[in-house]
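The authors assume throughout that readers already know how a fold can be written as discrete tokens. A single example would do more here than another paragraph of explanation. An entry of this sort, consisting of the sequence and the corresponding backbone structure tokens, reads as follows:
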Amino acid sequence: MELLRFTLAQIEAFACVCESGTLTQAARKLKKDRTTVSELLDYLEVDLGYTLFDRSTRPLTLTPQGQLLYRQARLFLHEAEAFSRIARQIPDSIETHLTLCYDLFTPRALLLQLAEQLRARHIQLDMIACERVQAEQWLDEGSVDLALFQAMNRSVNDHLHWRAVGSVSLAVYAREGYFSKQPVSLLHLASRPQLMPFRDLPPSLAGRLQIADNLIHVNEISLLEGLLQSGTGWAFLPDHFSAERLKGVMRVETAMGDNGLTHPLVALWKPGVINASVLSQVLSIMEKELLSGGAALT
């Protein structure tokens, strides 16, 4: 049996005339010309092979066939409305998948807030800890979408874009009694082993973070905390680490005070890899959380 060809507009017109009683009122409700509504019904009746209305009455009355078809038309329109709602929701229900690289100095609470807020926007966030050199290579290859690192006071390659999103404050931490007296001079800091949470430091960062000649590189946070607690060395760490929560570890007062220990964070990405709207949302969340202090660890 050959399927009947009809349009949604024909079924809407049929149901609306049934409920309105006249072509004029149906046309007004549908915001169409009366002639258009009449033609929609005429073509539907031609395809069906039978009439739907007794046009000799006012208001129009349904034929027996029309009465049976109206019930099906109303069910069909309910299904069409449900289809429309689902169709509109689909763009918001499809999850976008992002991969973010970060280093040891990135506030973990910021990353958790970012993941939570993006999940509410149907954006899944993968987070990978690595060094900035590796992150820039992955960004350039397009294998990751975004990176969040300390600023290096140098230009990135021509393929990447960047934007400052906030800053972190650094301080010296060590085991209680590691330094005999405070404030500790730079000379005294330089004479003791320094725990360095990076494998390689570019000159711009080394000039700020590297004080001691004897460096112990350890870029895994639990190991670094263990070495601090054991008195193996001291470390420059972000305040959001709350390293003083570690048993026997304290914040050390230094001769240089807090001057110059605030370090900017920058977001890095390769244009075209991440959707512009999604990128804008991610950067906005980063800036808001860092500005409000919501990235502080407790």
Q: What stands out?
A: The chain is about 45% helix and 20% strand.
